[in-house]
Design goal:
Blueprint (H helix, E strand, L loop, with lengths): L10 E2 L2 E2 L5 H6 L2 E4 L6 E5 H11 L9 H15 L9 E2 L5 H15 L3 E5 L7 H14 L5 E5 L21
Parallel strand pairs: 3-6, 6-7
Antiparallel strand pairs: 1-2, 4-5
Helix pairs in contact: 2-4, 3-4, 4-5
Length: 170
C-alpha cells in the first residue's frame, strides 16, 4: 500500500523531523530501535557504533579510540554482551535477543535525547528482557525520553515508565 502524508509536521524541539535527513535526525538526538533490526554484512559492531558516534560529534572533533573502547566495553559488560561481538558483523547471525541487546547498546553509546523503541521486547526470553529493560532504565533521565511501543505488559514490569497510554480498537 502507498501512503501519503499531506499537511502537518512531526516536530522535535522545534525542528520538523520530516524535513530532516536521517543523519540529521540522529544528530538532533533521536534514536529508533526496530522490531526487526537489519543485518549489516561486512561492518563490525564496534566500527558501526564508532562511526555513528563520530557522526554525532561536532565537525572537526575526533573520537578518541581508548576512551571509546573503554565506554563500549563497560556498556557491553552492563548488558552481558560478550566482547567477541565487537568483531562480528552488525546483527549477522545474531539471535533475536542478541539483536535487541545490540540495539540497546547502540542507544546507550549514542546517548540520544529521545528514543522510539518499536516492539523491542518482541520475541525476548526473560533474561534478555531483563537486560534490555536494564539498558532502557540506565539510558533514560529527566532530560531524555523513551517511547516504548509494545503489545505486552511484561516489559512494563521491568522499566520505569512515567506515562502509559493504551490503544484499544486502533
Amino acid at each position: 500500500d502507498d501512503y501519503e502524508v499531506t499537511g502537518g509536521s512531526v516536530t522535535m524541539d522545534g525542528a520538523d523531523l520530516l524535513e530532516l535527513e536521517i543523519d540529521e535526525r540522529s544528530r538532533a538526538g533521536l534514536f529508533l530501535a526496530f522490531q526487526y533490526p537489519a543485518e549489516v554484512p561486512g561492518v563490525t559492531m564496534a566500527n558501526f557504533i564508532r562511526a555513528a558516534r563520530q557522526a554525532r560529534m561536532p565537525e572537526g572533533e575526533e573520537l578518541e579510540a581508548v576512551s571509546y573502547y573503554k565506554d563500549l566495553y563497560a556498556k557491553m559488560d552492563q548488558l552481558g554482551i560478550d566482547r567477541k561481538f565487537t568483531g562480528r558483523a552488525v546483527n549477522e547471525g545474531f539471535s533475536g535477543g542478541e539483536k535487541k541487546r545490540n540495539e540497546v547498546l547502540q542507544m546507550m553509546m549514542l546517548d540520544p535525547v529521545y528514543c522510539i523503541m518499536d516492539e523491542t521486547d518482541s520475541g525476548l526470553d526473560i533474561d534478555a528482557l531483563h537486560t534490555v529493560a536494564k539498558g532502557i532504565n540506565a539510558s533514560t533521565t529527566d532530560e531524555s525520553g523513551c517511547l516504548i511501543i509494545t503489545h505486552y505488559q511484561r516489559i512494563l514490569d521491568h522499566v520505569k515508565p512515567t506515562h502509559v497510554h493504551i490503544m484499544i480498537d486502533g
